[in-house]
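In line with agreed milestones, the collection of sequences with tokenised folds has grown. One record among many is set out beneath this paragraph:
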Amino acid sequence: MDEGEQGGNAGVPAPRAGTALLDRRARVIGGLDGRLRDLSPAYFGLVMATGIVSLGAHMMGQPLVARALFLLNVLQYGVLCVLYVLRAVYHPRQFFGDMVSHLRGPGYFTAVAATGVLASQCFVQVDAPRAGFVLWLLAVVLWIGLIYTIFTAFTVKTDKPTLDKGISGGWLLAVVATQSLAVSSALLATHIGQPYRLELNLMALSMWLWGGMLYIWMMSLIFYRYVFFRFSPDDLSPPYWINMGAMAISTLAGSLLILNAPDAPFLVSLLPFLKGFTVFYWATGSWWIPMLLLLGIWRYGFQRFPFQYDPLYWGAVFPLGMYAASTWQMNLAMEFGFLAGMPRIFLHVALFAWLVTFIGMVRSVLRLRRQPSGRV
């Protein structure tokens, strides 16, 4: 055998190795593309949960925790914005198809609520009113675009699911998104001069009232679905905790309106109404906590439903943190005093739930990296 034949034989494995490497890269790229295609519309719940736990820690004198979570939240928000834009560009059919789906569409309201929560963090935690204003304006634009797109599509589409198949606690994310605008508008009003302070307080009041009305509409349907249709463990998805979270953020918005009353005469005239409905929202949210715990015990204890990470679990962390923050603010606004211990307890519960869910998310991401494709 001459050198030419030897050289030729020696070079045979090289193309195979190169082909294998290209195949591996193609599988990795394909897997990442698949995860981008299947990205949950509700993933901004991660920013909502992290933001409200950070705000609660700031309110209750834990600056290191609050600061660390704020910085993490800015990073998470930026990454998710990039991922959502990439999904809209490369997978428009899935992106916009989810938007008009009865079960997945309301998940997009997490983008509005997350932007509003991050704006509130800028106002409260880092005294960055300009950044907060930009985020508040973005939240307004997102709210207008999503709420009319989604509900118009739900109204005019030809093929619609039955009530038991088409509605879930995730629909109440529309209420949370609306109330997040009430909260951020009330906070922005404290950082801006007259006459815009009056307009912002009126906007906050209007959003607070509209969010409450929207909750009544939706909760009536959800409760009817609970009681009169067959209920399986699969139906009790984590967004059902938004039943409580929507009332908690309504309590927070009402408390801020009470605190803003000295700067807006029309709020002074409405103080009895504001205080009454704020307590009403808080009491309703409080009622849901034992009910949701009992349903959780039924799901995981009696029905043996597997407990594994799902991005929807951020929809259960957020209400815990929001209940802590809203109870703290209501205690200040109403000058109760005797509720000071309750929000601290719920803050620690929310921190624990956030940590467990975050660890689950990291483990899920690492596990998916070793797989060619998967849902994120």
About this structure: The chain has a mean pLDDT of 89. The longest helix spans residues 196-228.
